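Help wanted!
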Amino acid sequence: MAFPGFLGCALIAGGPGLAIFWTFFRRKAFLLLLILACAFCWLVGLLLTSLLFRGFVPLESHAGALAAALLVGVAVQEAMRLWCWALHRKLLVALGQVAENMEGAGRISREDEQLLALAQGWAHGATHSLFFYYSWLPLFLGEATLYLDACPKMSYFLAGALITLAFNLLHTFSMMIAFDGLREGKRQRWAAVPIAHLAAALLTLVNLRPNGCLGSIPLLLLLGLASAAAAAHICWHNAVTERAEASHMALPTSETNS
Amino acid sequence: MNQSRSLITICILSVLQGAISHSGINRNADLQRKIYLDVKNAPACVRLLNATGSVGCASEPVSAPLLFLSNAASNPVPDDSMVLVPEEQQAVFLQRLQASSAMQKRVKGVLVLPGSPASLTYADRFPLAPYAPYAASDYAWNRNGTIVSMLGIGTIPVFLLEGDAAAQAQQHAEENALKGFRGPVHVAELDATMWAAGNASACITQGTCLPLGGHSVWAALPPLPASGKDNRPIILVAAGVDSMAFFHDRTKGADAPLSGLVAMLAAAEALGNSSYADVYRKRIVFAAFSGEPWGYMGSKRFLWELHSGENSTRGLSLNQIEQMVEVGQVGRAADEVGQSAFYLHFQRGAPFGAADDLVEAFLRAGDDKAEISEASGHNPGIPPSSLMSFLRVKPGIAGVVLEEFNTHFINPFYHSRLDINISIEAVTSAAIVLARALHETAYGGSEVPLLKVTRTAVHATVAALVECLLMREPGLGCQLADRLISPVSRGEPMHYISTLPFLGQDSQDPSLALKKDVERFLWNFLASRTASGPVGGSSGKQGGCDFSSRRCAEGAVCVGYRALIGGSAGRGRCLLSTARYVPSYSTRFGCKDCEKGELFQWALSNRSIEWEATTAWPPDPMWTESNWPPGGVPQYRLYQREAEGAENRLLMGGVIVLLLSAAATTVAQAVYAQRLKQR
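Answered by r_m:
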């Protein structure tokens, strides 16, 4: 595959992430730093998690073994999400103290909290994409493409791009949903996140069946879009329920810093 | 299917779970292998250049969709095709290709699928007919013969597929056909880049090719005296060392010529072990000639060096060579019960020497395991053999060629990669018959004592030699070789002569860089088996000999020195023996300015022209092999190529996803801002 195909796949997998970044984070230096820090944490987390599997790879290629691996993988990541939540709380406290000490600045708003959660989710999705898709995508800069017997309708890297896109959306918005549920103590909301994650993970096992990718990939994309819709709904709802007297403290931007 | 399942597994887990990132470390390499089936240093038709032009194949990297031809003679071939043909039909297809320039434009390359044809030979019906001492050049010694090996395919690369690559390529070609070559297609990319062009003279001058060549080996029984020469008549016993095939790297040559070589070596051992050698009235000289398939290059060079008095043939003279016995193809002589039938071929009539004595000796040497007969008198003369070279230079030599066939080759795989099967029983019988006949002829007189030859011992020697020279495992890692040499490359030796990059100042220098493993093995084997004994006294180099500081005394040779082992463990023994290397390459090549002390560089030479004209040799073919780029050439890879326009569609899709996402986030931000304002 030559450069146009490579770029096409890169944009399919990362286009929405790029747009989210451009729209919400590009002017906010603090969020950029937070994203970098979170991405680093996820990277370390993923590497450490991989150690768990050192003794088990290569896995047997049947659904049972793969499902067990997926289960463990999802559990570890969801545990990391809880750890992120704890850090998030501490971060809010710290930022609140900074805001208090800053002349003219108010307290941290609900919108800021949501933006911080979105940034952490974005870091999760970006790290996954970088680690598991963009790392091998350059292999397709050569002459060749690859079609698997089980998925002959789309190339291996297009399927990878679409799956990456779906998980990118899921991870990005899941953090907002989970943090909101934890903040509000709404168990069904924060519990939905690991369930959706596990469902998406297990859904990929359908790829093992002939032409299974034609069923799994649309469903995965739907799941990703559903998580985006759920996050939007939460934001929409919170925007009107938040107390009107809360003064908005914008997070420092590159312009305001300068 | 399993492969794709495991790849799906990798895909799922890698995209989803960091937990599998350890397997992801290996994944890129696995994926790379899945995408490209890459084969470097692949067996391919390469470009050879001779005095008149070039043969073989050469091509810059080319790629095209795989097309399987079940009927190579008639299946249509569309434009831009990488043709897969079964080995059985390779010759037919190449001849079809050769005949049609339109087809040559459509075919980008040829991939040969290995098969099990009933016969396969890449030699002419009368191999090397111009060298025959008779005029019947249309006689079909090799009835299945083709001239494929000499076909100039020009710029179309031809590769042999092996193992998984063959199975995958055929499967991919069938998928292409099923899909009507629409959508993503499976292609092959072949790279047979060759640097040389024109003919041998041009490429040697330009330094873009190297001569085909190596070294022949000879040894004398009994060894030559310390004075270097006596006047004993010589019986020359000859066999070839190497063979040829369309894919040179895969040349085997089990029957032609290795069966004869092994029989000769085993006979040398049997005769050397007897106590009669010192009283032989005639000296037996065993000669293993390299390069015979290439215009009898080895024997011709031997005769030229003999004529010009080179060090390599010191102690021999053409006048002394009265008789010659050549051991040709003998490995297929045995029937199901191990009974072998051999035929004696000799050139009848004047001016050729009468071979009656030799023939009689051979006829008497037969036993219940080996039936010896004279070949048909209707044959035009001797079959293709080194004896032709000797009869050209000295017709008076009485020569016989021991073969497994009477009127034509029975080996259906002459000069092909499938010449792999020989019978150890047959070779053993040939060795015993040869030893008995040589013993009787060399001893002379009427009261010849019986040569005690134990069939079991000869059988064991033949089996050991076959193991060393013909088996992939252990090959030259065999016990026999381990006692004689340090092979640079363990495993099966190459049976194609290949190139001779340079020569040493001393043709007898046995350095690893100057002599091939097989040549050193043959030299050491013959030297040890024909030795009259160890050197006594201080000149015997107590503690072993080597080729530098612990050289043997004049008249003795160091046998069994293994340079790569080093130390005292690798040292050899000084034996009273006469064994020599004789360079084997075209007589029209030489060192450019070696006499001036310059670094070795090949150049054209006219030294032998007068001698060749006197002895009416056919024009020297001057065989050379093109140089090619380092790093894996000849090489090929199989992969799948995206359909035309698919990549642009992907790019469009990516841009659309990006624009929609940007629009969605921008709108979402604006709507959300409005919502906040309402609050």
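OP: Thanks! One thing I noticed: Chain A has one domain: 3-54+63-243.
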